[in-house]
Amino acid sequence: KIPRQVKDQLTPLIQKLMNICTSTKVLNRQAEWEEMKNIFELLKSVQDIEASYNPPQWDRNKNWNAFHEWCKDNEAIFSSVFIKEINDGEFGVFADKDIKEDEQFLLIPRKIMMSETSAQSSKLGPLISSDPILKNMPNVQVSMHLLMESLNPESFWMPYISILPSRYNTIHYFTFEELKDLRGSPVLEEVFQIFRSIVRQYCYFFLLFQKDTLADSLNIGPYFTYELYRWAVSSVMTRQNIIPTTEDGHMSISLIPLFDMCNHANGKLSTDFNLEKDSLVSYSFKAFSKGDQVFMFYGPRTNGEFFVHNGFVYTENENDAIEIKLGISKNDPLHSLKCSVCDKLNLSVNGPYFLYPVREILEELLSFVKINVMKSEELEKILNGDKEQIDALLSENSDLKNRAYSFLRDRLFLLLRSYKTTLEEDEEFLKQDTFESMHQHIAILLRLSEKKILKTSHDYCVSQLKEL
Fold first, then answer.
1. What is the pLDDT of residues 391-437, one digit of tens each?
2. Residues 200, 231: one domain?
3. How many Cβ atoms from other residues are within 10 Å of residue 222's Cβ?
4. How sure is the predictor about 234, in pLDDT bands with cuts at 50, 70 and 90?
5. Which of 276, 299, 317 delimits the end of a domain?
6. CA distance 209 to 222
């Protein structure tokens, strides 16, 4: 337990962190970095004080047998697969026999899942009902539920909790120096937002456990540390799935034992929830031979999404894309006219617009860029013209195409320049394989995937300009 005098020592630091993380002041990028540095310094002071009170890390390898028995005892079906270590603490699901495409290989009953429903039915339920943060944030409910159960050696879910990683590669484990490896990346803004949000939640609950009688009765407060909270949050971020409840078709965030041990690969969605059996059923999206790792398709996510929410980058991602921030400036004298044209053509004024690994620029993005570079008389023609006239202007006007591709080429060039390293330098880093940390490795993989898309799109614009 954390002694009262230690909590008193922590409280002013927590309040400072809370004030910074709840500020709504708009900052430029340099000021954002300064603020993040301040957050990390305060957080380091908090972690140093809490270090003696963090729960010990467990050895997952010692707990697999108990986990398998627990799954079997609770009617999970997984006879055609087994779990095996891949390398350095990373595990995966492997075929124990040949598995055909679309063959069922997992059945996981609801009763062993940790979810919003089980959280609300637990001792945490009354606090969820009364606290506005918990009540309105299902992911936080499940995180706090996991945290509470991890503190109870007699928890029904302890066999599952004991095989979870004790650390993750999510952004919550990055140091300030490691975050600098993301400079130039379009995910950086979201990384800052999520990091601040989780620190703010930690501060909120730390203070709540000191003053709220109901919260204090849960016996979480005496053990509540930032290390424990970021572990619970990262567990939910990286492993959560959405399943239907038995009531009104409501979808519930859930942690699904065994199912969440499957790693990602390109494929198709192949999981269903059988309401009659009250179980999740997973089918193989392709055939696997005995001894193969059995992968699962997590869905059409970009590497930026995988990085932020799952803590990895998938280099063979067929669904990769990056968002390019484009909009019509309110200072543009033609702002109103351009917005009207966008409205007529069903184009969003503020995006989002995406670039993909394919060489071509998608027509929707190109049309928006054309509107952005149009002159007033061209905009008037669109507003007053019929479909044939509009199509002719957008597709046949070589001067307009030239301006649009030039605008996009220059924007992409600047985006590539905003990184602190070049594409070639990142490729060389990967060849050398001398990373200071796994976080740096993942950040370089992300930068590289983004730069390849930007360069491909930039080169396409250049080639189109040469043809005009």
1. 888 888 899 999 999 999 999 999 999 999 999 999 999 998 888 89
2. yes
3. 14
4. very high
5. 317
6. 8
Q: What's the distance, Cα to Cα, between the start and end of the chain in Å?
A: 72
- The helix or strand, by DSSP H or E, that contains position 211, with its residue range, turns out to be helix 188-211
Where does the pLDDT of residue 359 fall: very low under 50, low under 70, confident under 90, or very high at 90 and above? confident
Whole-angstrom distance, CA of residue 439 vs CA of residue 420: 17
- Parent domain of 340: 322-467
Q: How many of the other CB atoms lie within 10 Å of CB of 47?
A: 15
- For the chain, the domain total comes to 2
The mean pLDDT value for 214-242 works out to: 93
* pTM higher than 0.90: yes
Distance CA 238, CA 191 (A): 15
Helices 335-344 and 363-372 pack at an angle, to 10 degrees, of 150
Question: Among 270, 299, 317, which residue terminates a domain?
Answer: 317
Tell me, yes or no, whether 403 and 463 share the same domain: yes
Which of 136, 132, 123, 146 is CA-nearest to residue 233?
A: 146
* CATH code of residue 462: 3.90.1420.10
Whether 8 has a pLDDT exceeding 90, the answer reads yes
Given a contact cutoff of 8 angstroms between Cβ atoms, the answer to whether 143 and 102 are in contact is: no
